[in-house]
C-alpha cells in the first residue's frame, strides 16, 4: 500500500511531478528500466499518488531515506514523504 492505494509487487520507474505550491504527484511506472523521462509513457503508470512536500534542512545531493512510515526523497530544502505499508 502506497499512500493508502494498492501497488502490486514488482519493479517500477519512479517519477515526481513538482508543483510550486500544493501537493506533488508521485508516479510508479511499469517500464522500470528507463533513463530519465525521455520515453516516459503515462499509459504505463501503475500508480499515481499525491503527496505534500515538507521543508527540511539543506541537502545538496538528492537522498532517498527509508523512514518508519515509508520513504522520502530529499533534495535542497524539500522532502517528499511517501507512506508505505
3D structure, described in words:
The structure is a single chain. The chain is mainly beta and 85 residues long. The protein is built from no helices and 5 strands. Helices cover 0% and strands 53% of the residues. The strands form 2 sheets. Strands 1-2-3 form a 3-stranded antiparallel sheet, with no helix packed on it. Strands 4-5 form a two-stranded antiparallel sheet. The mean pLDDT is 96.
Q: Care to give the gist of this entry?
A:
With 85 residues, the protein is mainly β. The protein contains no helices and 5 strands.
Blueprint of the fold:
Layout: E1 13-17, E2 24-29, E3 45-51, E4 54-66, E5 70-83
Antiparallel strand pairs: 1-2, 2-3, 4-5
Tags for this entry?
single chain, 85 residues, mainly beta, three-stranded antiparallel sheet, two-stranded antiparallel sheet, 5 strands
Amino acid at each position: 500500500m502506497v499512500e493508502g492505494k494498492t501497488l502490486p509487487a514488482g519493479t517500477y520507474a519512479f517519477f515526481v511531478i513538482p508543483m510550486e505550491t500544493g501537493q506533488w504527484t508521485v508516479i510508479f511506472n511499469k517500464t522500470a528500466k528507463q533513463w530519465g523521462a525521455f520515453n516516459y509513457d503515462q499509459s504505463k503508470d501503475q500508480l499515481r499518488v499525491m503527496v505534500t512536500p515538507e521543508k527540511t534542512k539543506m541537502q545538496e545531493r538528492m537522498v532517498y531515506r527509508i523512514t518508519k512510515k515509508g520513504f522520502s526523497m530529499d533534495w535542497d530544502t524539500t522532502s517528499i514523504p511517501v507512506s508505505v505499508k
